[in-house]
Amino acid sequence: MLPSGPTLRHVLVIGVDGVRFDLLGPAVTPVIWGFGRDGFLGPVPIDETTPTWSGPCWATIATGCGVDGHGITGNDLTGHRLADHPDFVTLATRAGLPTLLAVSGWPPLAVAEDGGPLFAEAARREFVPVAEVSLEGWDAADEATTARAAGILAEEGPRLSFVYLGAVDITGHAVGAGAAYRAAARAADERVGRLLAAVRSRPESAQEGWTTVVVTDHGHLDRGGHDGREPEVATAWAAAAGPGIRPGGPSPVTRQVQIAPLVLAALGDIGGSLRGTAEAEDHAGEDGEGGQALKRRDGARTG
């Protein structure tokens, strides 16, 4: 049973875009794989009604409601209904908690572009644009985002943080799910480890009750790209460890709408209303085109 009631618990959510579930393992992603030992790690099939694009998947993850609720069906978020279905960072911020949003590269998650921001409110907002639209540029943005977020986590310890890394997905689109894609996943896993180390470096960390959640939005075809229902595309995953999560136990997350309620439950119920929006909604085409199309207006990105 996850903790409820007023607490001083802290939650770190790390979103790593476009990582296939069958890629996870001790050789490529040892840090993420360790959640299966210290907490849980399991597949999360994307609902049939949710397009396998980043926009609708991240909206479902962040709000705890499906497409019928948040209204996002592609990577341009214009026309969304996020005012009625706010994300977990916004809910925590409105409750008066210190929060952090740190986003690499993809504007509509963090800024007013392409219908964004998906995450409407945050006490501290860090957006690192991609200086050069290339695999190297995206890797540099992920690196800078990780460095900024690690410093803030270590020094300030926000009650709720969301950190987004995008280079793995971009690599899959550019060159497919081969050696470079695995290398990008390995780099992302190392960055996840650095964020966890930043939390552990806090003298108060043992008393702060940190829960860490790591999640992806969708997978990739072997040739790169996604917008269909192939198992390697439509199987996302979630991992978490922290107070109230039984190590090595079965995953309590089997749908993307269950992630936001998990995050808010781990944080603690502030004022009796934090979990309401996400829990109420719990019931409720693109392809790999190479590196030249890492961003585009009709979808704001390729994944």
Architecture overview:
Residues 1-7 and 276-300 have low confidence and may be disordered. Helix 6 (135-155) packs parallel to helix 8 (179-200). The protein is globular. With 303 residues, it is of the alpha/beta class. The protein is built from twelve helices and seven strands. It has a seven-stranded mixed β-sheet with strand order 2-7-6-1-5-3-4, sandwiched between helices. The protein starts with 9 loop residues before the first strand and ends in a 23-residue tail after the last helix. Helix content is 34%, strand content 14%.
Summarize this, please?
This protein has 303 residues and is α/β, with parallel strands linked by helices. It has helices spanning 30-33, 35-38, 54-63, 67-70, 88-94, 135-155, 167-175, 179-200, 205-208, 231-234, 259-267, 276-280, and strands at 10-16, 40-45, 99-104, 124-128, 160-165, 210-215, 235-241.
Spell out the blueprint of helices and strands:
Layout (H helix, E strand, L loop, with lengths): L9 E7 L13 H4 L1 H4 L1 E6 L8 H10 L3 H4 L17 H7 L4 E6 L19 E5 L6 H21 L4 E6 L1 H9 L3 H22 L4 H4 L1 E6 L15 H4 E7 L17 H9 L8 H5 L23
Parallel strand pairs: 1-5, 1-6, 3-4, 3-5
Antiparallel strand pairs: 2-7, 6-7
Helix pairs in contact: 6-7, 6-8, 7-8
Keywords:
disordered N terminus, 7-stranded mixed beta sheet, alpha/beta, 303 residues
Order of helices and strands: EHHEHHHEEHEHHHEHEHH
Number of helices: 12
Q: Oligomerization state of this entry?
A: single chain
- Dominant shape: globular
Strand order of the largest sheet: 2-7-6-1-5-3-4
**Structural class assignment:** alpha/beta
End-to-end distance, in Å? Answer: 35 Å
Major β-sheet profile = 7 strands, mixed
